[in-house]
Write a sequence for this structure.
């Protein structure tokens, strides 16, 4: 999942290859999100890689949010950490708060999807790639990331 997601990101945003290589670390997550009218939930899994040490931390994720819309989407998130202490804090504490807005429909290689994701922390860059699904939504969400004790 990590390698496929990075390959797709590099194809769409070639400058991210150098950004990831020079960053203290990065993460790649696979997520499923659903929203019905005012409430949204999501879950997923992924890996955080410390570029300095090569250490991998396997993590899980859950999301809850409020907003207006209808969505079911399968998406990937690449997070680039531009600060070592923020990377360490993300692995140890795992919270990220942000908002999303998006519209689109995508199935396999058909369809188009546009979405943006933003982090409250300026030392984190987020890229979101929609794999499949349909969405018309605006939301403010809290996302919890935590280490997967079985895989670590």
């Amino acid at each position: 999942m990590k390698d496929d997601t990075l390959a797709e990101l590099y194809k769409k945003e070639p400058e991210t290859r150098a950004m990831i290589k020079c960053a203290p670390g990065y993460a790649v997550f696979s997520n499923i999100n659903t929203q019905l009218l005012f409430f949204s939930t999501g879950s997923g899994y992924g890996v955080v890689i410390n570029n300095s040490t090569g250490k991998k931390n396997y993590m899980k994720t859950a999301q809850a949010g409020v907003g207006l819309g209808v969505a079911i989407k399968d998406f990937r998130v690449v997070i680039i950490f531009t600060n070592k202490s923020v990377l360490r804090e993300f692995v140890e504490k795992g919270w990220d708060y942000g908002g999303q807005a998006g519209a689109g429909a995508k199935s396999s290689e058909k369809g188009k999807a546009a979405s943006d994701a933003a982090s409250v922390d300026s030392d984190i860059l987020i890229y979101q790639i929609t794999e499949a699904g349909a969405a018309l939504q605006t939301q403010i969400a809290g996302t919890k990331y935590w280490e997967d004790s079985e895989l670590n």
User: Anything to note?
Assistant: The longest strand covers residues 25-50. DSSP finds three helices and five strands in the chain.
